[in-house]
Write a structure and sequence with these properties.
By secondary structure, the protein is mostly helical. The chain is built from 15 helices and no strands. It has a single domain (11-284), classed as ADP-ribosylglycohydrolase fold (Orthogonal Bundle), CATH 1.10.4080. Helix 6 (136-147) packs across helix 7 (153-169).
Length: 290
Amino acid sequence: MWWRPRPELDLERVRGCLLGGALGDAVGARHEGAPPAGGRALRPGHFTDDTQLTLATAEAIADAGRADPERIAAGLLAWHRRDPIRGVGTATAKALRELSVGGHWALVGRTGEHAAGNGAAIRIAPLAFVLDPRDPKARRTIRDVARITHRSDEAYAGALAVCLAVHDALSDDLDLDLIAAALPDSGVRDRLREIARLELRDAAARGTSGWVVDAVPLALRAASIPDFESMLAEVVALGGDCDSIGSMAGQIWGARHGAAALPTAMLRELPGRDDVERVAHAFARTRPDR
């Protein structure tokens, strides 16, 4: 099936995904770019572009009733105009700038070697609730949505990997080997196979940058850690692009375990939680067209 055959989405899993991602982002943002170190505080600051772009994507799907690239591109721009997106990467900044002057969604994304960042992967999770990412037609939609900002085969592979992980997590399954097998030939697929059974700190020795080949496999590996706070502590200890890695890992973890499993004390301290809850409730009411 192209669309997931649900009359209404599971609010608990939607909230888990969006809140878990926001926590991973907001805690990780306090330590982004730092060298590896242990013992860092797990207190959330303000979430960044990772969460804002994810919420904008979910909101656009809720408004349209489907994952439509043109509507999602318009939604990203509308959110940016309403609440300027914080810490946005160069590829996304280029797309937003060109969209704002009438650029076509399929042409504004960045190309070339610098287009393989994780800016598409960080915002793709909502599509996993309404699409089956193993269906060829759904994959074309995922690719189009990724290409709004990142016209790169590697960036698409990273976005697809996150989509597959969230989709599988909704069924309480997270088999990294199966996810790797479902990916196209890419650096993301090869790295995921390399690190699938490594400890996170050993996997991170291959890199913790914002390059999608570094960030996405680490996020998927981190999401398999059973306890959320332990997972987040390990992610922030990595330093590097730990806000994006934490955001993607939190999205996957939250989709798998649900919002009730997230740490309540940390959620109480999350700035902007009301926005996340508002979008989660609207998105969970989405009844996808078939």
